[in-house]
Design goal:
The protein is of the alpha+beta class. It has helices at about 15-30, 90-100, 110-115, 115-125, 145-150, 180-185, 230-235, 250-265, 305-310, 315-325; strands at about 5-10, 35-45, 50, 55-60, 65-70, 70-75, 75-80, 130, 135-140, 155-160, 170-175, 190-195, 200-210, 215-225, 240-245, 275-280, 285-295.
Length: about 325
Amino acid sequence: MTKKNIALLAGGFTGEYEVSVNSAKNIAANLDPAKYIVYTIFINRDSWFYDGAEGKIEVDKNDFSVTVKGEKVRFDFAFITIHGTPGEDGKIQGYFDMLGIPYNTCDATTSAITMNKAFTKTIVHGIHGLNAARSMQLHKKDGHDVATIAANLKFPMFIKPNNGGSSVGMSKVHNIAGLPEAIEKAFHEDDQILVEEFIKGREFSRGIARLNGKIVVLPATEIISFTEFFDYEAKYTAGASEEITPADLSDEQNTKIAEILTEIYLRLNCKGMVRIDFILLEGSQDFYFIEVNTTPGQSSASLIPQQVRAAGMSVMEFYGDLIEGAF
């Protein structure tokens, strides 16, 4: 059996560069060496390079190849684990589509749409059993009247960048006085922002993937945050939150959620693995959609590897199925 050359893409152009590099290390450690030869390719604004035993080797972007010891290495598959741009927003997917190289994530269109929280909410609207918080989308170039926001939405509110993948620039606001600063903070990260009513309840995150042609919903993780909300700091600070996998949900709740998530996956035309975050409203059985993450973190402590293990699967087998399923 000929081994496949896998380009494992890490890095990106955002503050989540290091998170992506950690994801790549865990994926590399869990790709079957009997089947795959893994080349970790670092993508940053200045250069794309392979960091191997021979040192840094620039990628030829004309055909996405590297020349190692005088031999041109072409890739059978790209395993993208870049959070934010250009790996999560469809840019790199469009490039691989043009070169005809298969990859592990959603396609360019779905990746671009799901990076935009407002667009995503519009598409999933109307799925049976799924609710979404009331919200307003603001554009940097327009005027922002805090009185209009306060008249349309109830406090407390979340203000967040529309395209941010990593909870950077988020604020929770309890009254009109806090709005101007929160809006400015979010606009620092993005030209479009989302002002959303706060939904009080239990927060969950759940992976879903197409494995061997079948959509598989992984066990849910409940996120209990000890900060006011699960922002970037809480996500990446030890002890700032607790993650319980599998989450304490009844069989009925698990089945209902799995049906809703499958419908979201199909409606958005997702491919590979995605992670969907949602809230169970306090004192009810109502599920509220938060967002879809198309390149979820893959460090060994990340949610998807936790959920794969909780499902009784091996992480190596899971990644292998993602690669084989894309051919």
